[in-house]
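Now for our specimen.

. . .
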Amino acid sequence: MNRRLFWKLCLGVALGSVALFWVIARLSGQAEEQMSFIDADHQRTLRQYALQAEELYRTGDERALRDWLRSVQRQEQTWAAVVQPQLQALAGSELSKRFLSEFSLGRDPSWKIHLYFQDNPIMDVPFADGQRHFLIQLPQRMRPGHYWYPARLLLELVLPLTLLVIGCLLLYRHLMRPLNRLQQATRRFSEGDYEARAGVLLGSRRDELAGLVETFDSMAERIGGLIIDQRQRLAEMSHELRTPLARIEMAVSLAEQGGAPTILLRRIRQDCTAMRALVEDSLTLSWLETERPRLRDETLDLTDLLDSIIDDARFEFPDRHIDTQLPVEAELTGSCHRALGQAIENIVRNALEHTPPDGTVSIHLNCDPQTYLLEVIDEGPGVPEQWLERIFQPFERLSSDRAGFGLGLALAQRQVFAIGGCLTARNNEQGGLCMTIRLPREVSAA
């Protein structure tokens, strides 16, 4: 199994960790080294103190020297002294000339100061004769490394955190680049571009994620071929069904002219008409579910459309009453006259079919600044609450109380969705079923 991604991640994390530790150690060492020496101005000050002490000592005025030392101690908040070390070798041993020349009671101002020691060191500046020394405990203000702990915090916490975040971002981009390409290809494929592939966007990458993309491309190629074949079969079926239906209708017309039994011919014609409508609705429903088009390029008057549909309904169902509450005009932008008209017609016809004779179907259109709310209420038996969503499935039959819903409501819901609205159903409090269409008054055609 290809594990390139695994090894790349292991190598990247390992090398990155080693590099991070090395950089932190190197920078910390350099920072500590640079902060461990007394500032040059303070070194000059200490040596100047030593020169002043030597001058006072040479004058022989011990009182003046003592007063000066006290003033220095008060000024620097430390102690200072002038000493003359007496070195005496014991047990017949001898002190070497090198030791005597290099001997000191404290640190030279140019030496490195340990930042981790809490007590300030003793600084030793010898007089010119090399026999006497000016000693002073390093004043706190001269101690180096005042910024060492903030710098240490920066180097040991902030810098690693920053580098780790940058490393995570690089790793995230490396992992997400093929996933983003896969997401783009998936979105294009879901929108109907069945030629969309993600592999061409990855270049020469070959790892586990590239394998995932290759699997998606194979799946997309297969599904795209199936969908195209399905379209072709639907088109062929449509052609094959329409042709015999047309011949049957023509034969019925000729038979009617020749004096065939009228009732039988009328029944044949009704069946042919129903078959044609069923074929047309099935093809339209399949197109809406497969392509998911956006039918939003027309502007219409919703009131005029409803008036036309209601007039036809009254003619078709003369034994039902239709109660309407419509505004004088209702302009709807970004819609489709044919799709919306067919959807409303199916909803109204469904309400009339399930309303008993002499019953009433109410059609109300309410307007607000953003939406139109169309309600179609029948006086039928209603639908159980748990089945309100199922009535929008093709050929759904819930019980023997209702005659079934065929394709009308399923097609209506898809058509309303295609023009930017929504269709829902609920049981009316006074009985019957209430179908509600919500349509935005202005819908973008994009």
